[in-house]
Amino acid sequence: MPYSVGSVVDVFGRIVAADMAKQWKGTILNESKSGGNPQMTSDLSTGLLTATFLSANQALAQSQTGIIRIIAAINNEGRSKYFPEVPTMAEQGFPDAQVTPWFGIVVPRGTPEPIADRISKALDTALANPDVQQKLDLAGCPPKPASRAEFAASIKADIALWAKVVKDAGIPPD
User: Fold this and answer.
1) What CATH architecture is 2-92?
2) Domain extents in the chain
């Protein structure tokens, strides 16, 4: 029986689906590009998708209404505090299915330093707000403020990591 797996992050969905197909010999996993979490949730509830990857806040809201059932959590630090009864992907035999989401603000090259500094300070102030911290945490991305240099280094490291993952997986550019 073929299974359709949806993912907003095409590369991640392709890699996990390919790894699952290897481990579940004889199972067919079809990649299904979706238009975002609302579309994937709708497709999942109507049977167009068999499984999908959702953010913590989207999954929590939908599971509480009974529309979906959460079967695994991708969390580098163990089980989710929002659904501790759900095993992680690593616990279910997929230790490489680990992604650390991050959000940041970038500006065009050549932006004057005083402007970049002002934006950075405003972001630091926002991230110190407990309400903002709670909302980001619920979205599965607890705030981890970093200096501009640290953030730039993280971006470079992620580019190198994902370039290798894409190359090793043989994923052609779209």
Assistant:
1) 3-Layer(aba) Sandwich (3.40)
2) 2-92, 113-169
Alpha helices (H) along the chain: 10-23, 37-46, 56-64, 113-127, 130-138, 148-169
How many other C-beta atoms lie within 10 A of the C-beta of residue 107? 12
pLDDT at 112: 94
Rounded Cα gap, residues 23 and 80, in angstroms: 24
Pairing of strands 51-52, 2-7: parallel
Other Cβ atoms less than 10 A from the Cβ of 11: the count is 14
> Whole-model pTM above 0.70?
no
- Contacting residues for 163 by C-beta, under 8 A, at least 6 apart: none
Helix 130-138 and helix 56-64, axial crossing angle in degrees, nearest 10? 70
pLDDT over 70 at 121, yes or no: yes
